[in-house]
Amino acid sequence: xxxxxxxxxxxxxxxxxxxxxxxxxxxxxxxxxxxxxxxxxxxxxxxxxxxxxxxxxxxxxxxxxxxxxxxxxxxxxxxxxxxxxxxxxxxxxxxxxxxxxxxxxxxxxxxxxxx
Length: 115
Hints:
The chain has 115 residues and is mostly helical. 68% of the residues lie in helices and 0% in strands. It has one domain (17-112). It has helices at residues 18-43, 45-50, 59-82, 89-106, 109-112. Helix 1 packs antiparallel against helix 3 (59-82) and helix 1 runs parallel beside helix 4. The model has no long low-confidence stretch (mean pLDDT 88).
């Protein structure tokens, strides 16, 4: 028989999953932001002009830049709040997947044309 080792101890505290949950939810938020900004740029000329950071690419340059900034900001803020906590990862995963799915749907041209 083997002697119980450190991996067999049951009284060890759980490793916090907050940092991982923050990364997951921030990715969903960034994807959703990209979809919303894409729809907004397609339907409002003022937003389209405001998001045109680089003329040859048009509003795509600002749309992706702002979506990345939202993703990074969400990641930093959520990580700061959750880094030492255990978060309900299943709920966070479902919310992140829903946001990712909505973001993908909002960038699909036939769906964008419905708005």
